[in-house]
Write the structure tokens for this entry.
Amino acid sequence: MSSYFKKNIQLMKHHSSCVKDLPEELPQSIKILATPSGDNTVRLNNILIHSMYDPIKEGRAFADKVEAGSQVCLYGFGLGYHIGPLLKKIGPGGFLLAIELNPDLLLAAIMLRDLSKILCSKRFHLVFGFNEGKVAAEVTKYMERLQACSGTLEVLFHLPSFKVIPSCFPRLSNSLEVLLMERRFPAVLGSIEEKNYSLNKEIVRQSTGIKFLTSKHKGKPGILVSAGPSLDDILPYLKQVGKDAIVGCVDTALPILSHVDISPQYVFSLDPQEDSFRYFQGDLEGPAKLIFTPTVNSKIVHCYQGEKFIVFKHGHSKYKENDTVINDKGSTHSGGSVSCLALDALVQFGCNPVFLIGQDLSFPNNRSYSSFSNNNEQMLDKLNNHNSLTETHYAKSRENKIISVETNDGRRVATNQPMYSYLRAIEEIAAKNPDTKIYNLCSHGAQIDHVISLGSVKELLKFLVNKH
């Protein structure tokens, strides 16, 4: 073990200066187990890190589905059995960024296995450290490099290693869990998306692409209406505010606006599930232009009578169209929710500034939606004599892991992992478009980096009057 330690630790210093703080002594948390194949595996905190039978074979299987030339971001170095096969699979055109934050596990790998071939590869970098801010900055730097390269970007998780991520990395852990959740989403809704895609194919082919609308509203203010709780504060003023702006809304907000006689110019939809059709049932002949993705619920696309524009989500695995068709029609790089798609579209349309309304990205006062939303009506139908609407929102909000985030006035508010993902996606859109001013109006929820908070409708009205 000692010879491996000295050899590996010298090479490891090229990846992280923090390895110098690792002791040459196997921690008590690590339990070494011999396998029938003759290779060691370990348990850490009672989690088995690699196969009890053949860790090398398991490592090869881990790399099976990765394509040659892929740019891979991996959480979980483990003992490194899967690292060599991944490097072999991606080939000379690929790159592997591995993140390992558990010092006990990394130390076990350094002591138990000869890692020199892996650590000397120019197509590999390992991120390790004890300071969350520094580790996050290093990961961001390398992710930007990977995204700039040609080849598919793959995000992989070695799940046993991920289960033992230290508690001193809460934000990174949340971000990584969100990534893992996003990877699982296609597996959950993949068959529904495929069915919609098949049913929508002819309309997709015939529809004008979103690219036709590029810069159509250049320099005009845009308003994006979502259905969060803070919409209640703005709704009485929205008709007055919207007359001097381009108004777009997400599908969940469409019936709310229709109820108060507001007609948005655009409505955005991407949800493949049948429930999403109910937002359109009262507005199938509405004047709004529908911006939709190929996998959106087919009832929406086939029944909506207004003008339709197709937008492709960049890198979506279900699309069969070639790059030329997608480029000609237009696409979005924004992931996450329909709000992310809508915001990116308004930026593409040239709207500047863009005002977000009803965008709380959290559960202020334990509420998920505006009190005018159809979602509230559904919840009210399910209430019994012992439940209040607030309690039902509270229960609904906790179906996913809860995260505490900061509000604009320094308080803390609860959100969940899906909305945390959307929050980060909106921040990314704002950061990538610094020339477009983005404001969040009267939000009671999460603070959004790179987005300016407006505390009252008066500020918006004043801006629009001056602009006009």
About this structure: Residues 2-184 form one domain. The chain has 17 helices and 20 strands. Confidence is low (pLDDT under 50) at residues 376-398.
